[in-house]
UniProtKB/TrEMBL annotation, chain B:
Keywords on record: ATP-binding, Ligase, Nucleotide-binding, Protein biosynthesis
Keyword Ribosomal protein attributed: no
EC number(s) from the headed UniProt entry: 6.3.5.-
Role noted for this protein: Allows the formation of correctly charged Asn-tRNA(Asn) or Gln-tRNA(Gln) through the transamidation of misacylated Asp-tRNA(Asn) or Glu-tRNA(Gln) in organisms which lack either or both of asparaginyl-tRNA or glutaminyl-tRNA synthetases. The reaction takes place in the presence of glutamine and ATP through an activated phospho-Asp-tRNA(Asn) or phospho-Glu-tRNA(Gln).
Name by which UniProt lists this protein: Aspartyl/glutamyl-tRNA(Asn/Gln) amidotransferase subunit C
Length: 501, 99
């Protein structure tokens, strides 16, 4: 069992330094260096060619659209765009890359020296971006014979190269210092805001659960007050790989802070290594130790000529950027009429993009907010998944609200529609149909229930006859109970008052 | 003048997955030094005004349109594989690493 120090004790003794590496899989039609489809999945090894299989003599050619996306990401992160840069070979022996190297960029990234201002509960942290560079994704290995599909205990591995060569942009931060107790939240907020930006740019599907966006979390601790923000003293770091939800980013940072602190306070030292995140148990375990075997012998890729984006092109692409996130948030808040608290909660829940899309599908802003931060936030907490990963789309949420607006269902029944959609029972309309959830507003059926309620509550009926209209609530309740919640409450009230006037 | 030690040659051999015996290392390490020295003589010709060159052609920005073109069928792709299982390349397990 890994020993952990209580989080508050960690903060009393240590300053955390965070670093995040995020890989974004671009949504280009074709791969980075060949014309194979940039679509992962489907029939294994059916989306490959001599270039992405690394067959002798095959020559790569850069996908211009991927360069364009890389530059737009760089500009959106306030980076400088290289006037001239090269690709490099990162040499290693592992069967996920059949070439025995990954084509990447080394000391000449296409974008560098940027920043992103991250909002955490109304406070702004400036996360400095060291670089964003272009590279290609690797093939997918399946380990056979091991109990868990992992390599330990596996007899052999099976590789599908459909994913090999899909364009990736790797975005690397500088060490994030001074976040203190907020470090886990800052990490989460950074990844969430980066995703929002990538979605706004339209350069990737950016679904963490699909692996379009993958985060590696670097963390180190230094004794409290041992360095300053200007000249930090960084401790030995660990790199936790493939943390694939916002929630897990936060948990992984917290876990590593507590684990490092327990080791350091016991007089031990941190091993510089990669660690694996386990979503189910919320812990990290040791991966491979960084040693000099990890010497990638980078050298310039001779088969690809340098990329030298003209300043005209860069400025043209700058003109295509979406609004700056801070400005955009202020504009949206004003348009939607959200209070500061409502806006902050929406952002904090990672729901901003979802609310935007739901409103675009026709829902009123407050209704969109209410469902995502109420019913759906509750479900995401219960199931331990991010809102964005719930099996419901913004369009479906907007449709359920439309059903409420059209008085097909009331709020209470709408909750059952959500339940049905999340359980995979179909579209909102199908769930209403299958579960028979439509409210009854037909006077015939309602009238009979109202008559029954009046007969059963003669004293209440008398009060209403005497003009105590507020008493109608009790009768409405009785009718709703009779109709198992599926009555149009407004119409029931009208009928009661008509009958007793 | 660049000098490459026997240890460095052993390290490079390991990185390149070339299995060299002690006798081979003894034999090859001095030879590599000679080769490096010969290549380094280029520094004597190229002055500070000549930037290091990685590409012989003065070309930049050779891009492809983002268009899908047909590649290989899975059968063709796997035809040269030493072992195939479930339409995938079957490879020996790799120790000490996890993908």
């Amino acid at each position: 069992m890994t020993s952990l120090m209580p989080f508050d004790d960690v903060l009393a003794a240590y300053d955390p330094a965070l670093g995040l590496e995020v890989h974004v899989e671009l949504n280009t039609a074709s791969k980075m260096f060949c014309g194979c489809p940039a679509v992962f999945g489907g029939e294994p090894n059916a989306g490959v060619c001599p270039t992405c299989l690394g067959l002798p003599g095959a020559m790569p050619v850069v996908n211009g659209k991927a360069v364009e996306s890389a530059i737009r990401i760089g500009l959106a992160l306030n980076c400088d765009i290289a006037e001239w840069c090269r690709f490099a070979r990162k040499n290693y022996f592992y069967p996920d890359m059949p070439k025995n190297f990954q084509t990447s960029q080394y000391d000449e990234p296409i974008a560098f020296d940027g920043y992103m201002d991250v909002d955490v509960d109304g406070e702004t942290y400036r996360v400095e971006i060291e670089r964003a560079h272009m590279e290609e994704d690797t093939g997918k290995s399946l380990h056979v014979g091991g109990a868990t599909g992992r390599i330990h205990g596996a007899d052999h591995s099976l590789v599908d190269y459909n994913r090999a060569g899909i364009p990736l942009i790797e975005i690397v931060t500088r060490p994030i210092l001074g976040a203190g107790e907020r470090a886990p939240e800052v990490a989460k907020a950074y990844v969430a805001q980066l995703r929002e930006l990538i979605v706004a740019l339209g350069v990737s599907e950016a679904r963490m659960d699909q692996g379009n966006l993958r985060a590696d979390v670097n963390l180190s601790l230094s004794p409290k007050g041992s360095g300053t923000l200007d000249s930090p003293k960084l401790g030995t770091r660990t790199e936790t790989k493939n943390v694939n939800s916002f929630r897990s980013v936060e948990r992984a940072v917290r876990f590593e802070m507590q684990r490092h602190a327990a080791i350091l306070s016991g007089g031990g030292s941190i091993l510089q290594e990669t660690r694996h995140w386990h979503e189910d148990t919320g812990i990290t375990t040791s991966g491979r130790v960084k040693s000099d075997a990890e010497d990638y012998r980078y050298f310039p890729e001779p088969d690809l000529v340098p990329v030298a984006p003209s300043r005209e092109w860069v400025e043209e692409l700058r003109g295509t950027l979406p609004e700056n996130p801070t400005v955009r948030r202020a504009r949206l808040q004003a348009e939607w009429g959200f209070s500061d608290l409502e806006m902050r909660d929406t952002i904090g829940a990672g729901a901003l993009g979802l609310v935007i899309e739901t409103i675009a599908e026709g829902a009123a802003p407050q209704a969109a907010r209410k469902w995502w931060l109420g019913e759906l936030a509750r479900r995401s907490n219960e199931d331990g998944v991010d809102l964005v990963d719930l099996p419901i789309t913004p369009a479906q949420v907007a449709r359920i609200q439309a059903l409420v607006d059209e008085k097909v269902v009331n709020d209470k029944l709408a909750r059952q529609v959500f339940e049905g959609v999340l359980a995979g029972e179909g579209t909102p309309d199908e769930v209403v149909e299958k579960r028979g959830l439509a409210v009854v507003s037909d006077d015939g059926a309602l009238g009979a229930a109202v008559d029954k309620a009046i007969a059963a509550n003669p004293d209440v009926a008398d009060k209403i006859r005497d003009g105590k209209v507020a008493a109608a609530g009790a009768l409405i309740g009785a009718v709703m109970k009779e109709m198992r919640g599926q009555a149009d409450a407004g119409r029931v009230r009208e009928l009661i008052l008509e009958k007793l006037s | 003048m660049p000098e490459i030690s026997r240890d460095e040659v052993a390290h490079l051999a390991m990185l390149a997955r070339i299995d060299l015996s002690d006798a081979e290392l003894d034999h090859l390490a001095p030879q590599l030094s000679v080769i490096l020295e010969s290549v380094a003589s280029i520094n004597g010709v190229a002055g500070d005004d000549v930037p290091p060159t990685s590409h012989a052609l003065p070309l930049t920005n050779v891009f492809r349109e983002d268009v899908v073109v047909p590649g290989l069928t899975a059968e063709e792709a796997l035809s040269g594989a030493p072992a195939v299982e479930d339409q995938r390349f079957s490879v020996p397990r790799i120790l000490g690493e996890e993908a």
